[in-house]
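pinning this so it doesn't scroll away 📌
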Amino acid sequence: MIGAAAAAGASDLHLESRLAPATRVRGALRVGGESLPPQLLTEMARGLIGEEQWPFFLERRSFDLSRTICGVRCRINILHSSRGIGMAIRLLSTFQATVEKLNLHPDLKKFIKPTNGLVLVCGPTGCGKSSTLAALIQEINLAEARHIITVESPIEYSFRGRRSYIRQREVGRDTPSFEQALLDALREDPDVLMVGEMREPETMRLTLGAAETGHLVLATVHSATCAEALQRIVASFPSEIQGAISSQVADCLVGVISQRLRYRPELNIRVPECEILLATHAVKNYIRTREFFKIASALETGAEHDMWTFQRYTKWLDSRTQWFIPDQNPEPPDSETAEPAPYLPPASVRPGPSARPAAAMPNAAATGTPGERLEIEAVEGGLEKILKNLK
């Protein structure tokens, strides 16, 4: 089903017990096919989640994960509904996202030049926020040597380090929560932090703290406009500290990107339309005084500061002549597969250095002569083979 959905150009696949599968193609929902029996979906869900995590799903009645299926990277939400088990599957792009490949304005590259501060990407569900974040991370990866830590739930885009050193942590698998991951990150010498989503006040507080202490932080917020994103962050805290939070946001803000997807029939693709807000002195003053309604007028008059309203951005898209269309520009995926990490036994039962046999590296002498440099190529599954030889 995922292979068929990908072939049809779908962005989402919805499965539900006793209902026909549904796909979302270029923003339109299409329903068709035979209904799915509950037993089949339960078996599929159990196979994806695994026996160890199955009790956790039964307790929470929802589970997030990511997998590569039929060559397609998928973000999967497994849920329990009135009919039984259901799945909402997001089919992710197979190419490594960049600003050019997402048909975004080159001005967005300005957001990654600072070495500290907060960059917010906002919009409704399914508008491509994660793709834009991935594009900004990849731009840093291709241009600068920085230590990047991402905290996601789940990991959607897997990165291969180019000039940067990238660590990706998945909530629930690599860390128990966003809060714990952010606390850990401040002890891990990061230059750039990417927070998959800010929903809880504690996550927002730690994210703002990281942006204030010399790190560039990229994060997403669910909101329709730039002003609404800032207002939502401040309103998430108790009223007695909202003044302090407003000042904190104003001090560390670099800019906000609000986006939505619009289908362009002449290209047969959906293209992001953006509202871009930069943290000028006037905007920071509006945030401190919590006069968020004035940010709209700052956007209207901020063209000289490289701000964009949705209307101006749409006019720029209409005048654009060069587009990146994935179907016409095929390329191999430049990413690593982020599958669940193998289970490691406690240190007390692992073989120590003295337990390693001398013949753990067979034919080592035959692969080169004394003084000759050995070239070792990374092979998928090679670590598992070495561990087997060590037992």
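📌 and the second one:
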Amino acid sequence: MIYKLLGNRTYLGQLRHKDQWYPAEHPALITPAQWEDMHAILATNARVRGSHTRSSTPFLLKGIVFGHDGRALTPWHSTKKATGKRYRYYLPMRDIKEHAGASGLPRLPAAELESAVLDQLRGIVRSPDLLGNVLPLAIALDPTLDEAKVTVAMTRLDAI
């Protein structure tokens, strides 16, 4: 419906009769330059237009976190008008597609969810069992490595 609305030439002060558009008596709401600019934007791919917005808001777990029903959690943010502060969330796709609360999951604050995942990842990467499995593979890839270098690299996850 939005694309139909944005394609309505009545905003240019024109009326249609059959397949022809004619100047109307009502004044134009937008200029022809604004019309052309808007249609140039709409002519670009929606994914390309959206990538600028998506790339300006960092979400660490984008595309890799799912709800209990197997559906993806999608990044979402809102900005408080008065202060400009941005609040980041992960929302269940079911809530977006159907209605709020359809999934039974709350909005998950991005900072808390990302922090919990990083804490779990730190624990896994720093475990001695993983070091025993990774060490031979790392040495096979780079013979200059030794156990000390690999251990230090795995404990410095925060720097990465």
